[in-house]
Known about the structure:
alpha/beta
Amino acid sequence: MLPAPRSAMLLTYTSLPAVDWLVLPAAGLPGCRREVAVCRVPVAENQLHSPHLFGLLTLAEQQRARRYHAVADYHRFVVGRATLRLLLGGCLGVPPAALHFAAGPNYKPLLATAPELHYNVSHSGNWVLIAIGPMALGVDVEKINADFPFEEILDHSFSPAERAFVAQHPVPAAAFYRLWTRKEAFVKGTAQGIDADFARVPALDGRHQWQAAHPNPIGSWTVSSFAAAAGYVAALAYPAAIPASQVQFYEVGEGLFRG
C-alpha cells in the first residue's frame, strides 16, 4: 500500500514583544467568536476558589481531581478545568456544567455541542493557559528549568539547525524551551498528534514549508512565542488567516469566579 500523501503547509514563526495582559471582564470573553483569546490563570492565587470551582465540574472530572495526590496538582486541575468551563460557557451562553467535550482527530479535544468554537489548554508550574477562538489553534507553556537535561532529547526532536541555535544561545535552556513550545503548540493546533516527528516540525524564526503527516484543511499557520510570566515561555499556533490584531491576551482573576 502506498503511503498517504502529505499536505503542504506554510508556517511563519515569530516572537511577540512584551504582551499586554488585559483584565478579563467579569462577564467573560467579549469576542470569542471572532478573535483568538489567550487567557492566563495563576493557580496559587486562585486556589481559595477551588471549593466553589469544584462544584462546576462533572462527576467524572471531580473523581479525576480526587485522584491527584499532590495538592498543587489538584488545584491546578480544578482551577484550570473550571476556568475552561466558565470561559466556554460564557461564549456560548450556557451553564458551565452543560458543556460536553469529545475527542476529535488524533484525540484533540473539542466541544461536542459547539465544535465551531475551538479551544486548547496547557499548564506548567503555577500557570494555566487557555486559548479560545473561531478556528483551530494550539497553545503550550513551559516553566524554564535550567536543570532539565534537555540535551538528551535534542538529537531526536530537533533539526541540526535547531540544535546549533540552542548550543549557540547565551541561555541554552531558554532557547530549548522556546523551540519546544513552538513545536508543541503547532502539533496541538493542527492535530498532528503526539506521535509527530518533532525533528521535522520547524521551530526557528522565519517562514517554512512543511509537509503535514495528517490532512489539514488550513494551509498557512502562524506560531508566535511570548512570555507567559517571569520564567515561563509559551507559544500560540493559529491559522494565518487570523491577523495578529485579532489575538488578545487576558489575565483571569476572581472576577470571573465570582461573576
